[in-house]
Amino acid sequence: MQRKNFAVPVKLWASGCAIVGISMTSNTVLTCILALTGFLYLSVQHNWRALKSFGVFYIAMAVLLYLIRYQGLHMVVFSEFYVLMFWNLFAVFIVGWDLITTPPGELSAFMSRIHMPTAGILGLLVMFRFFPTMKAELKSVWLSMRNRGLAAPCQLLLHPVVSCEYVLVPLLLRCLQIADQLSVSAVARGAEASGKRGSYYEKDMTIKDWSCLILWSVVTFLFLWIGGVRA
User: 3-state class of 229 per DSSP?
Assistant: First the structure.
């Protein structure tokens, strides 16, 4: 069965192209080209859940930009600057999220192949898995609070300090438990062992991977050529 997700080198290359394109362009409006390429990038991998979430958020940003530019909308809580910033960085959000949600086995297999030190591999894996792990833990804490009737709007408004305590205390305890579990797991999997390492997750580049790599290179070049490079 052919795998649906791209290899790690392609994901790194896509992230690099998005960052270079956005940091060098002088036309923030045309960043939609990179964003649409990011949506195509997710659809090829059949990542429909992320595609739906990012699509709804991107449409909301587009509507807000239209209202700000042509209808004179002025927001009090959420500044117009942040709307433009999110619009400009959207392609980086897409490819970055796809990279950090890559299975840790695939990331470690690639980094071992390029002979990265073990300490660097473990550090990057922890960094990449931090946001998805915290998202799952916050969801668990919120469900637990809701089951106990502690997530009601009146409870949150009347007792904000206590509500924050209900979230932070179990979250910090879970962080300590996860840190201990990571240490035990790393030792059990031979992180301290020397010698050549193998992996079940090691993947070779396919035609689809090379095609995506070339696509991102071409799109980034055309994007900078059409939109111009910042002086």
Answer: strand
